[in-house]
Amino acid sequence: MSLRNMRISACLQLGLAVLMLAGPATGWAQQNSGWDALSAEQRNLLGRFEGEWDALPAERRERLVRGSDRWLGMDEEQRSSAQGRFQNWRSLSGEQRERIRGQYERFRNMSPEQRQQVRNNYERFRSMPAEDRSKLRERWNSMSPDDRRRAMEQRGAGQRRQPGARQQGQRRQQQDRPRNRRKPRG
């Protein structure tokens, strides 16, 4: 092996060793970064956590850092919208927040196809006239939990109602009902 190749090999080995040592240390530093490791903008934004920062669980610190990065990347309109959503969230009761968290977890555990179907249904709901949305909400709220589950299972199984199918179904039911006809007197 030539002297040049030996030097290249030694440099590569040294570089690999440095990367191997730096890899875990970098991950550890990111997870356990102290308050001083944050940028000035992040410290300003997260100032209320300064005194307790080192005592916060690493996962919480990571979420706060990611949130601050998102916030710092927003324009004024996006920030205003986010503030409104946050104020709405804070105005919810603990029970409402838990219900929403549960719904979010169920959504996250869905297949990509199921999540897309939920998005499509939401968009279809949003595009409905307000009166129709209100009627649909009333109907949903009047259903028992078992009826809701069955309705969801039917929707998930691809048994979609065609426009006008409800009226047709009602007509069929009316036709199939026994009629109270008077017997001719005789």
Brief rundown of the structure:
The chain is an all-alpha fold and 186 residues long. 72% of the residues lie in helices and 0% in strands.
Note down, in words, how this protein is organized.
This protein has 9 helices and no strands. With 186 residues, it is mostly helical. It has a domain at 39-91.
What topology emerges from the helices and strands here?
Elements: H1 3-31, H2 40-45, H3 58-72, H4 76-91, H5 94-108, H6 112-127, H7 130-142, H8 145-156, H9 165-176
Question: Overall pLDDT, averaged?
Answer: 75
Using the CA coordinates, give the radius of gyration. Answer: 30 Å
Count of discrete alpha- or pi-helical segments spanning 4 or more residues: 9
Helix amount: over 70%
What structural class should be given to the helix and strand makeup? mainly alpha
User: Main sheet, how many strands, which sense, barrel?
Assistant: none
Shape: elongated
Strand content: under 5%
The SSE string, one letter per element, is HHHHHHHHH
Low-confidence region ranges: 5-32, 158-183
Distance between the terminal alpha carbons, to the nearest Å?
A: 122 Å
